[in-house]
Design brief:
single chain, about 200 residues, alpha+beta, OB fold (Dihydrolipoamide Acetyltransferase, E2P), DNA polymerase, domain 1, Helicase, Ruva Protein, domain 3, 5-stranded antiparallel sheet, 10 helices, 5 strands, about 20% strand
């Protein structure tokens, strides 16, 4: 799994961008919220990523903040919601704005998002009401250490069923310097079971 990429921004044309990492150009699709904050072409950039592997394609999505990626992953887990709608949501409102829509059951704001009809908006409100919490959406997830081992450990712990906010707390309390992905996962799990 590719958890993050650091390289030179080689090209950007919404919704696509290319990041040159050691001579390899990675094409990523990103929401407009990320595009608005991108530096100039030729600048160094780090993006957290989400990789989707299908029979006919491998698609890489890039985000400037971990909170955006957490929301994107929560959205695409909702039945009938794919990456296109996930990107549309992030392009139309902030992570905080979406969180408030879910808290306030604001159907009207959700149906204004391109591709989101009334039934889809209702499904988002119902299915995400229990999944989204303050820690995972307010950007505190950005305190998770960056770097490939930390990103991979974060993804693995989420895949094991831990909530993104729990994973953030688990990893942010560890001294991650020099630890491998496996060691980070072991330490995080040991900390949970010791507590």
């Amino acid at each position: 799994m590719i958890g993050s990429l650091t390289g030179t921004l080689a090209a950007k044309q919404p919704p696509w961008l290319m990041l040159d990492v050691g001579g390899v150009g990675y094409e990523l699709e990103a929401p407009m919220s990320t595009f608005y904050e991108l530096p100039d072409v030729g600048s160094q950039l780090t993006l957290v990523t989400h990789l989707v592997v299908r029979e006919d394609a491998q698609l890489l999505y890039g985000f400037l903040s971990n909170a955006e990626r957490v929301l994107f992953r929560a959205l695409i887990k909702v039945s009938g919601i794919g990456a296109r709608i996930g990107l549309a949501v992030l392009s139309s409102m902030s992570v905080r704005g979406f969180h408030q829509c879910v808290q306030n059951r604001d159907l009207a704001s959700l149906v204004r998002i391109p591709g989101v009809g009334k039934k889809t908006a209702e499904r988002l409100l119902v299915e995400l009401a229990d999944r989204l919490d303050e820690d995972s959406l307010n950007g505190s997830n950005d305190s998770v250490p960056t770097g490939q081992p930390a990103s991979e450990a974060e993804s693995a712990l989420i895949a094991l069923g831990y909530r993104p906010a729990e994973v953030s707390r688990m990893l942010s309390s560890l001294d991650t310097a020099g630890l491998s992905t496996e060691a980070l996962i072991r330490e995080a799990l040991r900390q949970v079971h010791a507590g």
